[in-house]
């Protein structure tokens, strides 16, 4: 058996009772005197960082590598018996003998309270978050302090059980809030409801990977597995990346559950418009739109692809072979690349797969998208070349070769330039910066607000060449 501890903080709920005072005491200081009134204090040494995950919003996510919960149990320190496993759902997964052998880790010393623990047994892993509370109400707290733990038991497999760690922490924080609200964990009137709560969490998390449970009139529990949780920060969202949905929106009720900002942004995501275009269309600050898209990407609602530019070159990859043999992806592609009207509704007949595949195969090095459209004329097959490229970029059977401008060093125009910003811009046109990068840095000064405008400006200037890479 091995035991590990994590010092990461938990996600706290927002529901509290006005008669309960929360105080943050050092973990080792259990002898501190509580307030004069019978209120509850947490025994911990740091504040928590709220990061609440609410219910399912968009489509379904396939949790293929996550093991189901084998059991959930609630443990506490009994003043007569010591650490005991009070409730377990389903019973028995962890036997009394197993619990006795690890009870000192389940209800640990004060120094390890409010820290994530993981206990690895022969056939399972136990993930818990022990916590302690101080209260002057002697009928419920005979020793003026009590210790609790809510633990998730998962199979000992190669699956990604890390996703349960924030869920366990958040569940423990809800239990703390419930105890502070109405002595939910210590008063027998409420305590008898805990098995039903654990059963609902166990069944709903295994079935839907989320659970919403009304514990009291004040506190509702929201738990959700976050599929992107890998301890990795989501990528930075720049103004010229394009969000594209990876999960289908079934109806407007999903959008209505979201915050007001997301409700305005989501209908504008079409797989073509970049973040800056969405910001202009919704009249919302670009930084706020970027943060919203970043959040949607974290929860795997959207993917991010580079902006479509007619000056870029796109070439097919070896993934195109897998696309040819994937029937579901073929049908999805036919519907996505079909030309649409101003209301984003499909028009004309559905394209044929043979035309789509042939067009993908015709994309090659040395031919810009502008030249390719002139050569192939995809509109005659009722295909939108922008959607065709973005679909291929998302599923990685296309890759982009960006345009990198190179300024002639001997240009007579360059010698006469007095504008310092323009001098810096021309020196940056050395083949190492793409049009997208240059627009981000110099777009406002040059009055070019997208890479295509900058490309046109440089072509008309007459002393720039372009490298695709």
Automatic annotation (TrEMBL):
Q: Which GO terms describe its biological process?
A: cellular response to amino acid starvation; negative regulation of TORC1 signaling; positive regulation of autophagy
Disordered: annotated span: 28-50
- List the Gene Ontology MF annotations in alphabetical order: GTPase activator activity
Q: Which Pfam families match?
A: NPR2
GO CC terms of this entry? GATOR1 complex; vacuolar membrane
The record's comment on protein family reads: Belongs to the NPR2 family.
The protein here is known as: Nitrogen permease regulator 2-like protein
Taxonomic source organism: Diploscapter pachys
